[in-house]
Each structure stands twice: as structure tokens, then as C-alpha cells.
């Protein structure tokens, strides 16, 4: 085998019997529709055989590929973040490496996780739903965008979810249906996104006959169902007829609890519009925060910032109420 | 600000007024329970202020931190992979950076995505559910483990899901309940994991009265419900009384289709035991492939390989059948 430090795109091209630009297209993921599958296979075989490792700065000069874009988010198992990632991927395209830096312990990330993302020599970083301590004193080391961030993130451009509109849309919908007794279930969390979801809804129903709240220690919908089942009978006796949840996962737990109690006619509304909200029975009324659109917007802003050096503006993605059977008149 | 190339752990320690070992603990995520929250904040502030970027090889010498472990998987939105990631994170611990390299287009990855993972200077790589073309001719550039891989992956250690046992457990369960007419629904996919799920079940019920199959073009449970709703009446008329799905997501679609058709008493079984299988009604009988255990096993094997240089053995994670209401006698 040749010495690794002598291997360049030219050597790969010679080995594969093709042009340097064909190698460049394949290595940078821009070959789709431009070269044949057979040539692509030959280039990949040559890359592997010669152990060719494209040099990032050389790549950048030749192809405009700006390297790795790192994403940090709290919980890869929550489908909402899958939507945001899909939007980011679509906007960023195949010319960059998209890497998700995961917290290796616990269900949320801290500032060390962000420092690790920077240490991967990233061209850009996207921080999704960070807690306030993550951003406190953080000095960005490359273009960095916050999606669903706290109320104040002075140094960084943001893509916001409209968590205030979420609370208002839900309260208006339920009040319009005649409900006067409300329960609110959310996670025990300091995250600004959950504080706002809660306060926007509770402020709006402050004059209602009955308002009850429950803070859950975790996200597990089955645990939510069990805890909720314990408090629901008291809530219903006191006049609660509509239960609002900070996340659809918790909403599924409430639907299960109501089912086990044999109670019907209670309205349930979630937030986040996860895929199963269409499939569960009754289908769950929810807020579509536009996770995919938020991801696309963050991806586009980040690319433009990397390319032009110009800080992008703040963006707010509108929220929509999706009314389903769980909040129809029972 | 000092010149970046002069900044080491010593300078950070001086700035924060603490020991070099305290800096090392924080930077390597090993401070939990060993130093105060206040000291940790001070170290992080100094790291940020001085723009300290720990040198990986220096870190490795001092702390044993071997850097980044890269994971590549097809679809971050599928909750099964969330389980595998949680297991990997638990086994790998907070001393490494765990990074997920995502395909930026489409819903699966190819060999380029893997080459990108290698180009991040990884200490180890985990490839989850790769298709055969991903591994063809691939030369691993660091310890690399395959989870849920194809039947033959000669060069790489593997953690296997027991997809053969899955088909056998389901056929034995349904046959034991007296079913003699079966439908099988899976994705139109060349992935070995889906070929095996399908063949293991169909081989076992080859002598049944009726066997029908349906290949779906995508994973969307709502699309699955629509397509399934179109074929189900014919299947049921021909004597199908039990429907087996290659994945719980498809199972939710079948439950919805049966509900819309107003049909009861048809057994439905999924594979993967996703969280909602406990919550949907009827709760979905499924195969627990032990995703979390597979992730833990892959993480432990990889760390040991990195540390000792010794290739780990192949591991098979046992599958379990979780019987729920969807396959009880209707």
C-alpha cells in the first residue's frame, strides 16, 4: 500500500480509472444523477483500497464543502427531535457531514456536551432545546444557532417555536367548547420551553372555575398513566373536564388512564403532534410546532452564516392547533 | 486573550484557581460526585474564557479518554434505535464523546456516511442495521462493530438480534392459539434483518392453510394503515386470522385498519416492542429484540477492543415474545 500522506484525489482517480472531478463528486456526495452507479462503486472501492482520507481544508477549497455540522439535543428517542433532524438534513444537503453529539449519561445535555461538539472541528453547531445553564457564559467557537431556546440567549441567533401561541390556541379551543375546569400536566423541568408552555396556558385560563396542575418526574408515558390515574378521579370530581399536556407523550398516558378509569367525555390535548397522535384512539388533539420547518430554517440560516459570515436573523416558526377526536364533545 | 496554542490544562487550572486534576475531571466528564458544582462552573467558565481545546492525544495520555465514538444508523426517528443508543451511552460512559453521523438525505445510509464517520478521527465506530452494500469492500479504519448486520460480515465483530427466533416465537404462539391462516406485512427492503424476519416466520408456517404477504414501500404507519385497509378484506375472506408485521410501526397501521373496518378477533403481532405497543388499544403483542442490551453489549465490546487491542467475540442478544391483548382470543 502507498504511504497514506501521498494519497490524494488524483491517486484515487488514477486507481479507479476516472477523472479527479468524478472522485470529488463521489467523496462529497454530489454524484447523484451525474455519474453511473458502476463508476461510483469503482471510486468507493479505490477510496477504500488506497485508504484515501479527504483533507478537509483541501476539500473545502476544491468543492466548497465546509465540513461537519454538529447538532446537540436532549433526547434522540423523542420523535419530535427526529422531525427537526429531518428538516436540518434536508436543508444542509449531502455535501456536509451531519453529526449528532449525544450526552452519554442522563436524558439531557450540559455545557460539556456542547464543548465536545466544538472540539470536533465543526463548521457550524445547532443547539436544540438547551436549558439555560447550557448557554450561560458559552462562547461560540463557530456559527451556532439555537432552536427552541430560552427567553434570553443574547449572543446567538435563534429559531423559536411559538410556545406562547400554543397555550393560547389550546385555551381558546377548549373555552370555545364550553370547558370551565382545566388540568395541566407537564414535566418537572426548568426548561424555558416547558415553563412557557405552562404559563401561556395557565395565564389564559386564570379566570376558570377550576384549575389543577401536576408536575411529572419523567417522560415515560406509562409512568405518566399511572401517576395520572391516581390524581384524575379527584380532578374530575372537582370539575375538571379538559386535560392539557405539555407533550403528546404525556397525552397518551392520560388517554390510557381515562380508558382504565372507564371515563369518557373528558377532553385531552397534547403538544408536539407526534406521529402516534393520528393513530391512537381517540386520536389526540395537539399543537404542531413545525419541527421539520424549524430544522429546515436552522439549516438554511446556518449554511448562509457559514458562507457569507453574516449572522442570520431570528426566526419564529408558527404553531398550529390540530383538532382531533380527543377534544370533540363527548 | 492568550495565544490558543499556549493554553493547556495548567493555564485553565491557574485561571480557575484549582488543581490540574480538577480541570481534567471536568473536561473529561468524570467530575460527578468528586468536585463541587461551584468548582465545576468555575472550570467551565475558565475553559470558555481561555478558549481551551483539550488536545485529544494529550487527553488520552493523561486521562485514558480515547475520544469520539461514532454511531451510524438508518433513521434517528425510529424509537428502536433510541433504545440501542441509550444502551451504548450507558456502556460507553461520560468519558467519551458519542457522536451519531446522520445521512443527510434519504432514510438510510451508504458507505459514504461510514467514511465520514471515519474521517471524524474516531476511536471506534458502531454501524447499526447496515445494508449489505455498506459493508461490501469496507476497510475498517478503527475498531468497528456491527449491530444487527447482514448474514455475512466477515471482517467485523457483531452484535446480532435474534431475528430467526423472532419468526419462530411468533409462529409457535399463533399456531398454539389455533390460527391456520396468516398474513405477513413487511417493508419493501433488501435489508438482511427484514429478509430474515420474513423468511423465519414464513418458513415456519409454510404448511398453513392460507399465507398472504404484503410488501410496503415505506414506514409511515398511516400509509401502512391505508394500504393494509385495501388488502385486508380480501385476506380475511380467504381465511387469514392472524397478521404479523416486521415492525411495530406497521402493526399500529394494521390495528387502525382493522378498527376502521370494524373487524375484531383478528390477531396482530409486531416486532421491535416500541413504547407505544403498551399503550395502544388493543396493546400490541411484539418481539422485544433487546435493543438496549444490544447497545450495551456493543459499547462494552468496543471499549474493550479499544483498550486491549483484542477483537471482541460475536454476541447474540436473545429475543423475547411479549404477549398482549392484540393476540388474545377475540
Explain what the structure shows.
Two copies of one chain form a homodimer. By secondary structure, chain A is of the alpha/beta class. Chain A folds into three domains: 4-63, 434 Repressor (Amino-terminal Domain), CATH 1.10.260.40; 68-161 and 291-317, 3-Layer(aba) Sandwich (Rossmann fold), CATH 3.40.50; 163-288, Response regulator (Rossmann fold). Helix content of chain A is 43%, strand content 16%. The first copy, chain A, has helices spanning 9-16, 20-27, 37-50, 56-63, 79-92, 111-119, 132-135, 163-176, 192-204, 221-238, 248-261, 291-308; strands spanning 68-72, 97-102, 124-128, 144-147, 158-161, 181-187, 210-216, 242-245, 267-269, 286-288, 315-317, 320-322. In chain A, α9 (192-204) links the parallel β6 (181-187) and β7. The longest helix of chain A has 18 residues, at 221-238. The N and C termini of chain A lie far apart (74 Å). The model of chain A is unreliable at 56-65 (pLDDT under 50). At the A-B interface, α3, α5, β2, α6 and α10 of A face α3, α5, β2, α6 and α10 of B.
Mean pLDDT of chain A: 86
**SSE order of chain A in H/E notation?**
HHHHEHEHEHEEHEHEHEHEEHEE
Largest interface: A-B, 64 and 64 residues
- The shape of chain A is elongated
The number of distinct β-strands of chain A equals 12
CATH architecture of the largest domain in chain A: 3-Layer(aba) Sandwich
- Percent range for β-strand residues of chain A: 15-25%
- Could you give a short account of the major beta sheet of chain A? 6 strands, parallel
Integer-rounded radius of gyration of chain A:
24 Å
CATH topology of the largest domain in chain A: Rossmann fold
CATH class of the largest domain in chain A: Alpha Beta
Distance between the termini of chain A: 74 Å
Main structural class of chain A: alpha/beta
Strand order, largest beta sheet of chain A:
2-1-3-4-5-11
| Oligomeric state of this protein | homodimer
Amino acid at each position: 500500500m502507498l504511504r497514506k500522506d501521498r494519497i490524494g484525489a488524483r491517486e484515487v482517480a488514477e486507481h479507479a480509472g476516472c477523472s479527479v472531478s468524478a472522485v470529488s463528486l463521489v467523496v462529497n456526495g454530489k454524484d447523484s444523477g451525474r455519474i453511473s452507479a458502476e463508476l461510483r462503486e469503482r471510486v468507493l472501492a479505490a477510496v477504500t483500497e488506497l485508504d484515501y482520507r479527504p483533507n478537509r481544508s483541501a476539500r473545502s477549497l476544491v468543492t466548497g464543502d465546509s465540513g461537519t455540522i454538529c447538532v446537540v439535543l436532549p433526547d434522540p428517542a423523542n420523535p419530535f427531535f427526529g422531525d427537526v433532524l429531518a428538516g436540518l438534513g434536508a436543508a444542509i444537503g449531502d455535501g456536509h457531514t451531519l453529526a449528532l453529539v449525544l450526552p452519554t449519561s442522563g436524558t439531557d445535555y450540559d455545557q460539556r456536551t456542547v464543548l465536545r461538539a466544538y472540539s470536533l472541528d465543526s463548521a457550524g453547531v445547532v443547539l436544540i432545546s438547551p436549558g439555560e445553564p447550557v448557554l450561560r457564559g458559552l462562547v461560540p467557537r463557530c456559527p451556532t444557532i439555537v432552536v427552541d431556546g430560552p427567553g434570553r440567549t443574547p449572543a446567538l441567533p435563534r429559531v423559536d417555536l411559538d410556545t406562547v401561541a400554543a397555550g393560547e390556541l389550546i385555551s381558546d379551543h377548549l373555552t370555545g367548547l364550553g370547558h370551565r375546569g382545566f388540568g395541566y400536566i407537564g414535566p418537572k423541568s426548568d426548561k424555558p420551553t416547558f415553563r412557557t408552555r405552562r404559563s401561556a396556558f395557565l395565564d389564559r385560563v386564570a379566570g376558570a372555575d377550576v384549575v389543577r396542575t401536576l408536575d411529572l418526574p419523567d417522560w415515560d408515558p406509562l409512568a405518566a398513566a399511572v401517576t395520572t390515574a391516581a390524581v384524575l378521579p379527584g380532578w374530575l370530581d372537582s370539575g375538571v373536564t379538559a386535560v392539557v399536556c405539555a407533550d403528546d407523550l404525556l397525552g397518551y398516558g392520560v388517554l390510557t388512564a381515562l380508558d382504565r378509569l372507564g371515563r369518557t367525555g373528558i377532553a385531552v390535548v397534547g403538544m408536539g403532534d407526534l406521529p402516534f397522535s393520528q393513530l391512537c384512539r381517540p386520536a389526540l388533539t395537539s399543537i404542531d410546532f413545525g419541527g421539520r420547518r424549524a430544522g429546515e430554517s436552522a439549516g438554511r440560516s446556518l449554511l448562509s452564516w457559514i458562507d457569507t459570515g453574516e449572522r442570520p436573523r431570528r426566526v419564529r416558526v408558527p404553531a398550529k392547533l390540530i383538532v382531533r377526536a380527543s377534544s370533540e364533545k363527548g
